[in-house]
Amino acid sequence: MNWRIIGILIAKDFSLFFRNKLFLVLTVIGFIFYVVIYFVLPSSVNENLEIGLYAPVALPAFTEIEEDGLEIAMVESEEALKEAVIEGTYVAGVALPADIADKLIKNEKPNIRLYFTPDVPQEMKETVAVIIRELAYMQTGQALNIETSEEILGPDMTGTPIPPRDRLRPLLAIIILMVEMMGLANLVSEEVERDTIHALLVTPMSIRDLFVAKGITGTGLAFGQALLFMAVVGGMSGQPLIILISLLLGGVLVTGAAFLISSVSKDFMSVLAWSIPAFILLIVPSFSVMFPGAITDWIKIIPSYYLVDTVHRVANFGSGWGDIWLNLLILLGYCLVITWAGITVLRRKFQ
Amino acid sequence: MSLKRVGILLGKEFLYGSKGYIFIFAIVAPLVLSFVISLIFGTLFTEKPKLGVLEDDRSELVAMIQGLDTITTEEYSNIADIKHAVETGAADVGIVLPADFDSAIIKGEETEITAYIWGESLAKNRTIIAVTITNLVREITGQESPVNIESITLGEEISIPWNDRLLPVIVLIAVFLGGLMLPATSLINEKAKRTLDALVVTPTSMGEVFTAKGLVGIILSLFMGILILVINQAFGSEPLLLILVLVLGGIMAVEFGLILGILMKDFAALFTVWKSAGIILFAPVFIYLFPEIPQWIGNIFPTYYIVQPIVELSQRGGSWPEISIEVFVLIGLDLILLGLVMFTLEKRQPLTA
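Above: the input entities. Below: the structure tokens describing the complete assembly.
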């Protein structure tokens, strides 16, 4: 293997890649766009229902309740309560009447007013009404003879829920890798289309040098950007080495896919046409992270699942080598198979 | 005009045009934009709490939960399935009701519910599910609510969530990206390759060529407009009127596209016009986005007469009387633009790059 020739070829490929204005724009603007999307999305999740309460009399069930997910704040007057609701401080305001305690003792039904802003959905109004009704039941001492045995499945994230933007992180990293897949596929198909590939092969460069150079270019472009993205959005803070290896394998995976795509593409438009189905397929596993439970186990046959799952578990749950080694092993297997297949079909095309 | 020739040209436009970058972009861009806006402004992340239920006997509780709008409920047939659903997040909480649950609670006998809780579920979702179930059990046992509850909505104006406010932007992009850019780029491409010159020496007339290119743009913009409205569940109660507005909007977009296609020499010039003059097309939606801006300003811009009926029909539950004036103005604008297309074409003959 001639590393000097490989180096020259890599430099040429980088130069060609950045000469295609579309991919240059997609690369630079896209990267900024992904980072902006990440930082625009909420950085935290409000996992509590925040309710304002005006209570002229102290009712322990209302004023002293301590329940996960429910945050009841006392407000001095009904007017202040209305203002706080309009300002969005609380999702709902609850105003207890002054005679509530007397009426409850007399078994009469006091009238409780709930205040909402117009944009609060109907189901939220119903939910708050159900909660207040339940607190009233508790205040009147009406018990139920039901025991509940609870079992938490998976790590209990109460108090530290995963923000939407961190759920989106694997998807954005995958998109960055995919765009580079298109870039490399276009680069290779251009070489074939212009027949420069055969010109290269009559030089001292071997076909192995050619694939090594293309592989390094593709993996480098994809891996470099995905790595930079993860570093910018804080995905490298927990287990940087695992993320690094996962993204490197992701880079190899899309390079193999790019070889496959370029083997069936004739020009830029056919690269786009073949890339879009591959893009959609490889992106699907990210949705299992964003919308848990929305997709069934069949996604495990898609190679990018093992990349997405690893990035998600490591970056969002702090998983270590012991938890994700199998993922990396399967991903490596997919990388080897897809890259081998890509090289084989592309080599046939060259010859 | 020969309909057969228009049909052949239309087929050609779809066959070759659909492989073009602009065609793909006109489909992908509005979908991606719609998805991103949904993500950012919360439609996709504001799901109701999800409850999984496994019961030995038919319990009234399950039927009551299924009738609620506040919780999404799914029934499972065995422990393994319900645990798997909770583990993967398909359910926030999964409850297993014992046999004779209803009779036990009605008799006041002690009974036990097993609850599997997804570790990642939000605390408020867990609370909502627990409180709701308790409330329903009380109903089954005949306990009467000790209080009356009155819900009061504060504020006179209905505030529109941001993802709803942004819907007209996406619809307009969907209609204009396909409707304007597709005929414009197609014409510029044909001028550059001189294939138009070749076409008009055949019995095909320029009118037939323009009709075919326009139809492709209208069909694509209509398809994308409908798709975006369906995805955003904003089709309203007057779908036929909405389609009529989208068709008229698509015609306007195509007419702008054909005029640009005739006038512009190359893609660079077209994209420069799109970037600089695009603000005129999208001005009404920005005015709609910010209610603080005097709304009458929007009436100056032609696309106002597309945006206003779409908003009225899809978000405000409007019908024909509320949109009739805008629709007639839109028809008038389409006719004026049609005249402009014919005038520009006549002045620019022969069409060469």
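Note for the figure: Chain A touches chain B through 74 residues (CB under 8 Å).
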